[in-house]
Design goal:
This protein is α+β, with helices and mostly antiparallel strands. The protein contains six helices and 15 strands. Strands 5, 6, 7, 8, 9, 10, 11, 12, 13, 14 and 15 form an eleven-stranded mixed sheet that branches. The protein has a four-stranded antiparallel sheet with strand order 1-4-2-3. A hairpin with a 2-residue loop joins strand 2 and strand 3.
Length: 283
């Protein structure tokens, strides 16, 4: 029997517990959540809950099921773990209070090793996520990401037709910590960081373009904010995007995927140098 645990955020809106569970445990199918509630295999602060249960801000929720949530594995050896992170799951604990990549891996590995994040993907972003299994590998990967010797390539869907069809765009990015958002500007100013984003148009259907994007700098929300600044917001983006278009096209998930990773880390991971791992985006 597996146990999945979450803490309902204090600011979570009132409503049915079932709806919260679907967001807190995105790798559990809806039928598994319904079944657990029907069997009263869900507890809120230690008390069994049923399908009519409501959310309680700050409450601890535990769901018991035989179903084992799996993070899709792309590659694994004695030093590293490369997974295909689904959209809707955070890398580590945040204000959402639900399952995370780290909590799932710790539950699965049962102390065999400590999974260490060497970079991160936003909660709504899917794709290749690299973790280290030991100190030496962690240090090598952290250094490689810092020096940008590992190449990360994304695919995304954006509004409109890109002109030119491919380019390298440069600008500056400012973080707004209170709003958990960033802003892109054209000129240098105190606190702003330079950004460079390379894109190539793969297709255009008359409304939406599919892009291959390479980050030449790695800043918070860089692709989402930079493309919006260029008047080509990502489809499904609720923070920087075109909500009217998303509503019209009935898109409620961010169309951004880290789909390619090429190694150049050296050191204990030199056996992987030059090797490229790739996945197909889920859109």
């Amino acid at each position: 029997m597996q146990m999945y645990e979450a803490v309902i955020p204090e600011n979570w809106p009132a409503g049915r517990l079932e709806a919260y569970l679907s967001q807190a445990f995105p790798l559990l199918p809806s039928r598994i959540i319904r079944e657990a509630l029907q069997k009263r295999d869900v507890k809120i602060n230690g008390q069994r809950a049923n399908r009519d249960a409501q959310t309680i801000p700050g409450a601890k929720v535990q769901l018991y099921t035989a179903f084992e949530a799996e993070l899709p594995l792309v590659y694994e050896d004695e030093h590293i773990l490369l997974i295909n992170k689904p959209a809707g799951i955070s890398c580590e604990m945040d204000g959402r209070g639900g399952m995370t990549v780290i909590s799932l891996l710790e539950q699965k590995t049962k102390g065999e090793y400590t999974p260490r994040l060497c970079h991160r993907l936003d909660h709504p972003t899917s794709g290749l996520l690299l973790l280290a299994k030991d100190d030496e590998s962690e240090q090598a990967l952290l250094e490689a990401f810092k020096e940008r010797t590992l190449t990360k390539v994304y695919q995304c869907l954006v509004r409109g037709e890109m002109r030119p069809k491919e380019a390298v765009k440069e600008a500056f990015l400012i973080k707004d910590a209170k709003a958990a958002k960033v802003r892109v500007i054209t000129h240098e100013t105190p606190g702003a960081q330079p950004i460079a984003t390379k894109y190539e148009t793969l297709s255009f259907d008359g409304t939406i373009s599919r892009l291959r994007v390479t980050l030449l700098t790695g800043r918070t929300h860089q692709i989402r904010a930079h493309m919006s600044f260029l008047s080509h917001p990502l489809l499904g983006d609720d923070k920087y995007g075109d909500r009217n278009l998303n509503k019209r096209l009935k898109v409620n998930a961010l169309k951004l995927c880290a789909c390619e990773l090429t190694f150049h880390a050296g050191g204990c991971l030199s056996y992987l140098d030059g090797r490229t791992f790739s996945i197909h985006p889920p859109f």
